[in-house]
Amino acid sequence: MKRQFTFLTLFVLALSQFSFAQRKGYWQQKVDYKMSVDVDEKTYRYDGNMTLKYTNNSGQSLSKVYFHLYFNAFQPGSMMDYRLAHLPDPSRNMMTNIGTKEKPKLVSRISLLKPEQIGYQKIKSLKYNGVTADFKVDGTILEVALPTPIAAGQEASFDLVWEAQVPEQIRRSGRNSADGVEFSMTQWYPKMAHFDEFGWHLDEYVAREFIAPFGNFDVTIRMQKDYIIGASGILQNPKAVKGYDQTAKVPSTDNKATWHFKAENIHDFAWAADKNFVIDSAKTKGGITIYTIFIPSSKKNKENWTQALGLATEFFDFCADRFGPYPWPNYTIVQGGDGGMEYGTITLVTGNRNIQSLVGVIFHEAAHSWYQHLFGINETVDEWFDEGFTSYVQDLGMHYLFHKRGSVETNPVIDAYRGYYKLALSGKEEPMSLLADYYNTNYAYTNQAYNKGSVLAEQLGYIIGKENLQKTFLKFYDVWKFKHPTPNDFKRVAEEVSGINLKWYFNLFVNTTRKIDYAITNVTDSGITVENKSDFAMPLDILVEYTDGSKELFYIPLREMRGEKPAESYKLYEGVKRTVLEDAFWTNPTYTIPLGKTAAKIWIDPTQRLADVESSDNYYERK
Ligand SMILES: [Zn+2]
Question: Is the pTM of this model over 0.85?
Answer without folding.
Answer: yes
